[in-house]
Amino acid sequence: MVNTLLFISAIIILLAILLTFYRFIKGPTAPDRLVAFDVMTVSSLALIGLIAKFSSRIIYLDVAIVYGLLSFLGVIIVSRYFERGL
Amino acid sequence: MKIKNIAAIFLILLSIWILLNSQFQIEVMIIGVILSFVISIIMGSRITVFNELKFSFGSVFYTIWYLFVFLAELVKSNLDVARRVLTPSLPINPGIIKTKTVLKSKMGRMILANSITLTPGTLTVDIEDDILYIHCIDVCCEDIDKATAAIVDKFEKILVKIYG
Amino acid sequence: MGNILEIIGAVLVLLGSVFLFLGALGLVRMPDLYNRIQAGTKASTLGTFLTLFGLLLIIPEWWGKLVLLMTFILITNPVSSHVLARAAHYIKIPLTDKTVADLLNKEETTYKVNEEIKNE
Prior knowledge:
The complex is a heterotrimer of chains A (86), B (164) and C (120).
Chain A: H1 2-26, H2 30-54, H3 59-82
Chain B: H1 2-21, H2 26-43, H3 57-86, E1 95-100, H4 106-117, E2 122-128, E3 131-136, H5 144-163
Antiparallel strand pairs in B: 1-3, 2-3
Chain C: H1 2-29, H2 33-58, H3 63-90, H4 106-119
């Protein structure tokens, strides 16, 4: 029961990441792609959490923490670059 | 003044250490305390954001109360955005408007701007002294006083009690 | 008792994934960048928050790292969306035709901030 529900949620999150990937490829301007990248990484944090539950390894959550940190820094740095303030 | 700053950085670092390890063995705790102490002494004179914090019973109580208000607004904002996305005609009425805040401290303004970003249909675009420029998904009014009453006030009246 | 908590947690995970999906849908459907930021970042914040909270109910032993991740997302996500919106307005990404008002005067605000950066 619980595992089925979690599996369905993982598939829904995967579909969401695919939708954001569409915006990532199409997005008319560079900031559009950056927004898509931001949403994509934050969604994959949830997916990494679910994968950690499926394989019951807490070490994957460390991966999620570092991934979130890198994505946040990446978005900030690219935004500063757009503003010519880097 | 400086002691308060160092204490705030020390407490934040120590709580991150405890959360990362999530165990309370004596060796782990000793290493965490030593590391956080050294880092907070080194960084204490450079990070000045925490100078405005007030440690008192009232501020702790209002911080927790604020967290609940904030989470309720977060859920409301998501239902609002979900309703707009699912409606086929896409009912949006966007625009950038001005609002005003009475908060003086940097920390208070930062928390206010972040809360506004996560509440129904609003996004802080820029801050210039006490003027907040807010992008609304559904513009209610272009007048600065009415917009302040509609968007900023519900957070501000709690944040004023914490950050004065 | 543990079983009921697990089921509540699984329902919360499902709810969070639905919010993530709606945010992605908003990202695709909205007409301009600012509305995309609104739809995308808000929904992804609550969606990830709910998913991790559901996992916390299912596996309480992982509380430390899950709480750290949830706080981290709650703090950093609005910051990154604000910085992005500011940068986009600075490089004059156009607003959609439906826009009612744009009261942000670029010459007054953003250039001043950049002068401050140069002086440092």
